[in-house]
Design brief:
alpha/beta; TIM Barrel; three-stranded antiparallel sheet; 11 strands; globular
Length: 387
């Protein structure tokens, strides 16, 4: 395997990804090797000096300041596996949370969002929703990311949405201009409408509002969906193609068309009934916005697998085997995904017994194993297991 974008085997890798998407019979699954879980330390050595600790301000958060970081980062991302590495606009930054109005703080190690003070009361939430709705309506003619600053004047503090979209779009431009001839540019980690509602309200208040103020929750979730899709629209207008297709950010899968990735980590808190009523229609709408949609799922959300498999726009389900989770405990769910003829991406750390379990129980058709490894010995172990 050779992962260099200039290497002649790139065409062969594209063909392997076609076989994965079409769930053809293959001798082994797609294999990828991830050196550690995603965090800011993968991009910069000195996280304390990366950005001033404390509240993040739009005035200091400009696209140009991150160019040197990417120039250093691209020197480190070549890997000898089946995947196509992407560059994304700061995947460790909570873009959608910032755009919907959540205050963002940098701790010296990572960026975090906080709930919006105004939404702590029902009346405050109603006012905030009305302001956000007016602001988004005033931007309706600017789906390509232009004109957001002027439109944002209509809703006072909601100019954050316009400004963060502008910065995200500027980063897409910077990455495309400086690196797009060599590396595919992918979508950043964007949270879905449920996760955005949890960010705005806090998880506990969100759960209560599903029952105490269901109409208000549906309004908030509808607007969160619009914010999410505004980021996706930027990719349509500013993104570049790669090998007559695109590559899914963070999961490095080539597809012959437009792609997006979606996650709803807060689904772990919901019953199947609540998810089905409030979130499922929105996730179906989002998934239909691309030719190929990947859903990022943790084992804590496997109880909602039935609804995910009912989403016709989802072609790929990615399951993270998080630290402390044994493969055997989620194996039945993985087999259910494959039985539904969805492509499966399984990511995590695997010991030798788990590799044997995966090899003997999972269908290689439409299967991608992304092993989080520490060293070459662990990489060799995965290759041997599926060789």
């Amino acid at each position: 395997m050779n992962s260099s974008p200039e290497h002649p085997s790139t065409a062969e890798k594209v063909e392997r990804h076609r076989a994965f998407l079409e769930r053809r019979s293959v001798l082994r699954p797609l294999l990828g090797f991830i050196h550690g879980w995603e965090d800011i330390s993968k991009y910069v050595r000195d996280t304390v000096q990366f950005y001033p600790a404390g509240p993040v301000t739009l005035q200091t958060f400009t696209a140009g300041r991150f160019g040197p970081m990417y120039a250093d980062y691209v020197k480190t991302i070549s890997r000898s596996d089946d995947l196509f590495r992407t560059l994304e606009p700061l995947p460790f930054f909570p873009w959608a949370e910032a755009a919907i109005g959540c205050p963002i703080t940098y701790t010296g190690k990572n960026f975090w969002s906080c709930p919006i003070e105004e939404t702590k009361s029902d009346e405050g939430l109603k006012t905030w929703i009305a302001d956000l709705r007016r602001g988004l309506a005033s931007q309706s003619g600017a789906s390509d990311g232009s004109g957001f600053e002027a439109a944002a004047q209509a809703f006072a503090a909601r100019e954050a949405c316009a400004s963060w979209l502008t910065i995200y779009g500027a980063l897409l431009n910077l990455l495309g201009e400086q690196f797009g001839s060599q590396w595919p540019i992918g979508q950043s980690i964007l949270r879905g409408p449920l996760d955005l509602a949890a960010a705005v309200l806090g998880e506990e208040r969100m759960i209560y509002l599903f029952f105490d103020q269901p109409a208000l929750m549906k309004e908030l979730l509808e607007l969160a969906t619009k914010v999410f899709l505004k980021f996706i629209a930027l990719h349509r207008h500013r993104g570049s193609s790669f090998r007559n297709g695109s590559v899914i950010g963070s999961y490095y899968l080539w597809v012959p068309g437009r792609c997006l990735r979606l996650q709803e980590d807060a689904m772990a808190l919901l019953s199947p009934q609540v998810y089905r009523e409030f979130i499922h229609p929105l996730d179906c709408h989002i998934a239909s916005a691309a030719d190929y949609t990947l859903f990022h799922l943790h084992s804590t959300g496997m109880h909602l697998l039935g609804s995910l498999l009912d989403n016709p726009g989802l072609q790929i389900i990615q399951v993270s085997k998080d630290e402390g989770v044994e493969l055997g405990s989620i194996l039945a769910g993985l087999k259910t995904i494959q039985a539904a003829k969805k492509c499966l991406v399984l990511k995590g750390r695997f010991n030798a017994e788990e590799l044997r379990l995966a090899k003997s129980n999972l269908d290689y058709r439409g299967l991608c194993i992304q092993a989080v490894i520490r060293d070459q010995q662990e990489e060799d172990g995965v290759c041997s297991a599926f060789g």
